[in-house]
Design goal:
Number of strands: 0
Number of domains: 2
Helix content: 55-70%
Shape: globular
CATH architecture of the largest domain: Orthogonal Bundle
Largest sheet: none
Structural class: mainly alpha
CATH topology of the largest domain: Tetracycline Repressor, domain 2
Length: 224
Amino acid sequence: MSVADPHTEPRPTSASGKPLTSRGEATRARILEAAEHVFADLGYHEASIVKITERAGIGLGTFYLYFDGKQQVFEELVVDLNRRVRRSMSDAMAGATDRISAERAGFEGFFRFTAAHPALYRVVREAEFVSPATMRLHYTRIVEGYEAGLRAAQQAGDVDTALDPEVTAWALMGAGELIGMRYLLWDRGADGSAPAEMPASVIDDMARFIRNALAPRTTPEGQS
């Protein structure tokens, strides 16, 4: 898995568009963290700004210094989760020596993030109805970097050149999302707790699947 570098994206601003101080960035991050829990627990329509500010430990006036209302904080949460999950994948891939290793490391980073932040699933699914453009932004930001990485790997001879990079990027991203849903979101222990991490056997099987899907094909001798 390859993603656009999230480290180079613009820093967040206040509701008025002014740059934030370090303290302002910390407050904004606390609001988004609270929103992550409230939207995940209650859903968009049942969530409220009051519940978000109560969880964040701030007043309503402070909230409006950073966001115009519930829809904006929801959309900014999708963008923030997207940035953080891409950072988790990008950091995990650093130092990978070949494409298959990079793919495995990227998915491991994705699964680590989603195990710690299962709200990603509910928030993105709700975005389909609350803010379709933001949902599309979430997926396209991942796919754009993913596709570029596959094209580079094809040029380097690491990936089958017969594959369409865009189709392949969407297919693998979709597979990773559903695998995460199956083994991280739905599985529960005897006490009802969610898994803390993706089982190693699942990652091994997924890496094998990816290797078989991406590896360059060799033409048998005597065939054209």
